[in-house]
Design brief:
183 residues; Coagulation Factor XIII, Chain A, domain 1; 5-stranded antiparallel beta sheet; single chain; 13 strands
Length: 183
């Protein structure tokens, strides 16, 4: 039986501050001129929403970068592929969460289905354990979700991952999806 097990890596991201040490994020050059920065901002959707990740944003939440990578930092530019035992990470760099008492309150759901429509995972609020304590605003900017492909994947050509991130204290929602093709 084919299975895909989704794991939430956010707790590790929060404790290790991956925002500054994210080896899977494309490197930035800080010596750009104003015209180069404006050009980059105008082209942000094309450059930074990679890996076939589809997004929809509402209200205050905005995604500055979205991509899928391996744990070793290899970024999938277009099509995401994985074989048995491979772990993939959805990386979302976001802005716009409302702060209350110096904390942000983030909700995240994730659903994974096989190519034949079988629901592998359907988690409604993966960050519910932070409902009372909230998250440091710097940490809330970097949402990381992972999935591990396990089992015999040869008879299943792909998995579909859908996700939603929302602000629990203000209007704001980002929803999206990406496809994992098996190899």
């Amino acid at each position: 039986m084919k299975k895909m097990i989704a794991l939430v890596l956010f707790a590790a991201t929060v404790s290790y501050g991956c925002g500054n040490n994210d080896k899977s994020a494309p490197k930035e050059n800080n010596t750009k001129t104003n015209s180069e920065e404006k050009e980059k901002d105008a082209d942000k959707t094309v450059q930074e929403l990679m890996s076939g990740v589809s997004l929809s944003e509402t209200a205050n939440l905005k995604v500055s970068r979205a991509f899928v990578s391996t744990v070793d930092g290899e970024v999938f530019k277009n099509e995401v592929t994985a074989g048995d035992g491979e772990k993939l990470i959805l990386n979302l760099n976001m802005d716009g969460f409302k702060e209350e008492g110096g904390k942000c309150f983030v909700g995240v759901s994730e659903k994974i289905t096989s190519s034949n429509g079988e629901v592998i995972l359907d988690e409604q609020d993966l960050f519910s354990k932070y409902n009372e304590t909230g998250l440091n605003p710097d940490d809330a900017r970097f949402v990381r979700l992972s999935a591990v492909v396990t089992g015999n994947v040869s008879s299943n050509p792909y998995y579909m991952v859908t996700f939603r991130v929302w602000d629990k204290k203000a209007p704001g929602d980002v929803s999206g999806s990406y496809k994992i093709r098996t190899k």
